[in-house]
Amino acid sequence: MRAEVVQVRCRDGVPVEFRRERSRTSGSVRRYSVRAVLGFWVEGTAWWRSKAVRAVLGRDSHESIDTTPEPDRTIWRVEAREADHFHVGVYHLVRGGDGAWLLTRAGD
Which residue ranges does the record assign to the DUF6504 domain (predicted)? Predict the structure, then answer.
């Protein structure tokens, strides 16, 4: 599954609902209620892939060094149910350091 931009509503910092588009052309939205949080964790950035490291290794110009680290991201593994459906699935909701949410894995 490719990462998909989703809208997430949180309560006390915890996801309680998310919405995803059915298709880009229809404009309709699927709404999911989070029934349980199965876990969450923070992933640090892949610092070894940064421009600064590539420059030190001679793979990039030293003039292009950007020492600004990429922000960490938080992954929430949730059990959720689509509105008006009985089936429950497991989803990974990822909040990037920029505040944007992505759906990266769905096991529904």
Answer: 30-106
